[in-house]
Task: inverse folding
């Protein structure tokens, strides 16, 4: 009789945490997003990840007033005249063939990137709100003409990307998509930008984008859950032990 009760409560002590573990595990399967990229057929050859370039704008007194480091990829849907159909093309900006220029004012700063070979002009305009001391990417314009393709010219003045605080740089390691127009989007990779408040030609401390923070959040959640699980198992074990002791005394 003693043996049976003892075995029973021990079993409960082990099985209960296992059930809990199974439930928690299932919960996590839904929390963690699938990281595998969709493998849809790409009509054009994939140019791969763009190379990271560093671009700067200097003010009249010769100091850098805007600094940006990023890989840039243009995603454009356009009509191909010889093919007589709409094609989607993904083009990487090559840093060593790209020239940067621009301007800095107290509440706006612009970065203009030009590549001679493709006759591509890409302009980013940042706006600083001088009351809230926050800046953001407010405007992007792109004009490009490739051989065999219709020229592209888009301008969007109502964007709200790369929101940062004056005195900090804005950083986003993960790929970020800037939707400029219905047929034009820009993918940025390993981005760090500071359009205002530069001191000494160097980036100030960085504010990380939400995408990067979410990435860091998952290991934190998993760690916390594991710690919680250990506590549950311990508690269940201790309760199980107490019960089995109680079992001895009543018999
Ligand atoms: C250069 O000009 C900027 C404003 O355009 C100013 O903030 C900065 O202090 C100046 N730097 C020097 C070395 O004068
Ligand atoms: C380009 O844009 C189209 C639609 O706008 C999208 O389906 C496609 O995944 C994008 N490609 C890349 C490489 O971002
Ligand atoms: C282009 O294709 C459309 C149908 O897809 C056809 O009606 C049109 O005649 C074609 N134009 C030329 C110039 O081939
Ligand atoms: C630019 O860089 C690419 C890849 O790194 C290289 O293949 C190409 O020769 C370079 N072009 C020039 C003009 O330096
Ligand atoms: C600047 O920020 C303040 C406070 O967030 C806001 O009330 C104001 O409308 C902003 N100004 C502009 C021009 O966006
Ligand atoms: C500008 O971009 C915003 C955000 O992507 C979009 O909602 C808006 O339709 C765009 N405007 C134009 C003229 O394409
Ligand atoms: C945008 O793409 C659609 C096809 O997806 C095409 O019919 C349209 O002409 C394009 N618009 C511009 C402005 O290129």
Result:
């Amino acid at each position: 009789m003693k043996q049976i009760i003892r075995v029973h409560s021990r079993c409960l002590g082990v099985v209960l945490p296992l059930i809990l573990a199974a439930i928690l595990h299932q919960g996590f399967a839904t929390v963690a997003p699938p990281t595998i990229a969709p493998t849809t057929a790409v009509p054009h050859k994939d140019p791969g990840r763009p190379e990271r370039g560093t671009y700067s704008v200097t003010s009249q007194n010769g100091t850098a007033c805007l600094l940006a480091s990023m890989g840039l990829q243009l995603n454009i849907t356009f009509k191909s005249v010889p093919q007589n159909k709409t094609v989607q093309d993904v083009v990487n900006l090559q840093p060593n063939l790209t020239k940067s220029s621009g301007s800095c004012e107290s509440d706006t700063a612009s970065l203009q990137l030009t590549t001679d070979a493709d006759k591509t002009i890409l302009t980013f305009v940042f706006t600083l709100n001088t009351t809230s001391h926050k800046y953001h990417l407010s405007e992007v314009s792109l004009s490009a003409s490739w051989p065999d393709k219709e020229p592209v010219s888009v301008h969007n003045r109502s964007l709200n990307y790369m929101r940062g605080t004056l005195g900090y740089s804005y950083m986003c390691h993960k790929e970020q998509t800037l939707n400029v127009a219905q047929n034009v989007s820009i993918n940025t990779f390993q981005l760090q930008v500071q359009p205002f408040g530069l001191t000494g030609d160097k980036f100030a401390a960085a504010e990380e984008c939400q995408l990067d923070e979410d990435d860091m959040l998952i290991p934190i959640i998993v760690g916390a859950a594991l710690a919680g699980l250990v506590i549950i198992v311990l508690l269940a074990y201790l309760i199980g032990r107490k019960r089995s002791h109680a079992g001895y005394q009543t018999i």
